[in-house]
Task: structure prediction
Amino acid sequence: MPRRSLKEKIKEERKLQIIRTACRLFAQNGYYNTTMPDIARELNMSVGNLYNYFPSKEELAKEVMLTVSRWVAERLRAINEEDIPTREKIYKLVEGFFEVSLEEPELIDYFLRVFLSNREVFREGCEGFACVGEVVTEVMILLSTGVERGELRNQDFFPAFVTVMGPMGGIVFLKGEGVLEKPLMDYVDDVAQNIWNALKA
Result:
């Protein structure tokens, strides 16, 4: 694989900066209340230059979602590759998801506040699981491997998927609302145990 040039690396870093800024503004002000000029102003760049990176606000919104999915999927892929019991994988998944939400709060906030509540924005090219496909694939691998090992019940994928992702997203959402009584990481054990209890064979 050829090494990226310095120019390509700088462009990639700038792109990531745009993604972080956009998702923070989308989550804070709402997707429809945030314009491309707002994002460019926040970044101290011209609107024309911003359009060189992303041709529309819709494309930028989709790219943010793909980035969030990629980061979470990378954590989950590393867990899936470990030769450990499924129960331990579930614990590590919860721990990793919470860590990402603390390290990249604007990205997780974007997923919870924009992607889930503005589905009409994602009608083309991001339908269904298209923009979170990498995460879905890794959860599918986690579940199917657990079933093959006799550690998890064999059940329909969608209820099992929601059983895994729902509690994690819910706790992170409550953290963002400022209603949790303890730090987020203090909930890892309980959330992982609840998921395991709901899925175990």
Observations:
- The chain has one domain: 57-199.
- The CA atoms of residues 27 and 128 lie 21 Å apart.
- The mean pLDDT is 88.
